[in-house]
Design brief:
- It is a single chain.
- It contains 15 helices and 16 strands.
- The radius of gyration is 26 Å and the shape is globular.
- The termini are far apart.
- It is an alpha+beta fold.
Length: 452
């Protein structure tokens, strides 16, 4: 019996599988338009609502001869970003998805339209982006974040954190990081801590950020915020890597409040030692963990003046522990400032997880820093669209707090039969689909109907 590869199976041939009792089980490859990504229509509407794709396209220069352009910049962006949202993070996936009916519809390709971009076209696109384009794209993300507010917010809480992207090739800016024991890049991720919206992502070398890098990034973001919302309170929240004397001086000079981690040293430890010993004594007597909070003025030798430091002191069966936060906020109690304000920055780790793990933004496969920064921006656009979908269509539903991975599995990876006519593209989904209500909500939003 001769063997056949799947590519050699005739479309009309029926393949038989193990029967279910006396019932035959057969497979036939005869459907002209099927897609496992029917939820691409939802992403198309979410992208239309926040306008991130047209804004990105406008910021990218295109020197190609117009008569020879088969795939406009906006089409390339939406194709790549929608594929990322659906779990196809590599440009290689373009070859097998360029004729997918759902992806084509999301990219505004109607009936009878040609295929979307191939992998070589997408790779050339990624590698032709220059520094001027990247600067424009950075401000697109900051402005899109500011546009998400219908009115000036009382407070914008900036969560800033670098995160390692491991690399396995000859990428520019890659350095060996002893802490992670790997060669990596460490891009800045900047989110708004109250809403979870992305502000910006910036590629940088695989090492601890310098004061110049931190100030340069914050300067551009804060300037944009002040121009749009001059009376909004701005607070920076970050770990001890960002607590540098020049950074603190710059924040105070700009009127930006802060709650930053402070590395432990002998002077700080001496200040809280009596309270730690008392907490340890209570722990031994009551055999229960003890937690205390303390606030005091502290002036490091490199600081121009003393600043307020909040200490969290803990005694358990494992021993004692002290953590410190430096802040310029005076009207907030030590416990509230540490547990409610500072510790809440742990949510930024969840946002980074969505960006890196679920949207695969850690895939830095290009060799040049410019190309990898552009890839990071495209994954960031996917984050903006997915987060916008969760804030609008999914608000008030069971998926309102779901991770991007759960949203993808339950809402985006939906089987659809696509009917293509001269004047319509109709998606046929299962009658029992649990996504039916959410598709209806999206259609209502697209029609301008307010959804509660």
């Amino acid at each position: 019996m001769s063997s056949q590869t799947p590519a050699q199976v005739p479309a009309a041939q029926q393949l038989r599988f193990s029967p279910i009792g006396r019932t035959r089980v057969e497979v036939s490859f005869d459907e002209p338009e099927l897609s496992s990504d029917g939820g691409a229509l939802l992403l198309r509407e979410a992208a239309r609502i926040n306008g991130i794709i047209p804004a990105m396209a406008a910021a990218i220069g295109d020197e190609r001869r117009a008569s020879h352009v088969g795939h406009p910049t906006e089409e390339l962006l939406i194709q790549r970003v929608v594929q990322i949202c659906h779990g196809y993070e590599d440009a290689n996936d373009c070859d097998r998805l360029r004729n997918d009916a759902a992806i084509k519809a999301a990219a505004e390709h109607g009936p009878g339209s040609p295929a979307l971009a191939s992998q070589p076209t997408m790779s050339r696109f990624e590698n032709r982006i220059g520094r001027r384009d990247l600067i424009g794209l950075f401000y697109v993300f900051v402005d899109t974040f500011l546009d998400s507010y219908t009115q000036a917010p009382e407070c914008i809480l900036i969560d800033l954190d670098p995160t390692p992207n491991r690399v396995y090739g000859d990428q520019q800016l890659a350095l060996f990081n002893a802490h992670y024991d790997e060669y990596c890049l460490m891009p800045f991720h900047v989110y708004e801590g109250i809403t979870g919206r992305l502000i910006a992502t910036v590629l940088r070398p695989g090492k601890t950020p310098t004061k110049g890098e931190i100030i340069a990034l914050l300067k551009r973001i804060v300037r944009r915020i002040r121009r749009r919302f001059p009376h909004t309170t701005v607070i920076l929240r970050a770990d001890s890597h960002h607590t540098k004397p020049d950074v603190l001086d710059w924040l105070e000079g700009q009127g930006v409040h802060y709650a930053l981690g402070l590395a432990t040293n002998a002077v700080l430890r001496r200040e809280v030692e009596p309270m730690l010993e008392r907490a340890a004594r209570f722990q031994r007597e009551e055999w229960a963990p003890q937690r205390r909070f303390h606030s005091f003025a502290y002036g490091a030798e490199t600081w121009g003046h003393p600043r307020r430091v909040v200490a969290r002191l803990e005694a358990t069966a494992m021993g004692t522990d002290a953590r410190f936060v430096v802040t310029d906020l005076e009207g907030v109690g030590a416990k509230v400032l540490y547990e409610t304000l500072y510790c809440d920055r742990g949510n930024a780790e969840l946002m980074i997880k969505e960006h890196k793990v679920f949207l695969k933004s850690s895939r830095m496969s290009c060799s040049t820093a410019e190309a990898n920064q552009f890839r990071l921006f495209m994954h960031s656009a996917a984050y903006v669209i997915m987060h916008g979908l969760r804030e609008t269509v999914l608000r008030g539903t069971a998926l309102a707090t779901a991770t991007f991975d759960t949203i993808r599995l339950r809402l985006l990876k939906v089987a659809a039969r696509v009917q293509v006519g001269k004047t319509l593209v109709r998606f046929h989904l299962p009658a029992s689909s649990p996504a039916a209500e959410l598709f209806a909500r999206t259609a209502a939003l697209a029609a301008g109907v307010r959804v509660t």
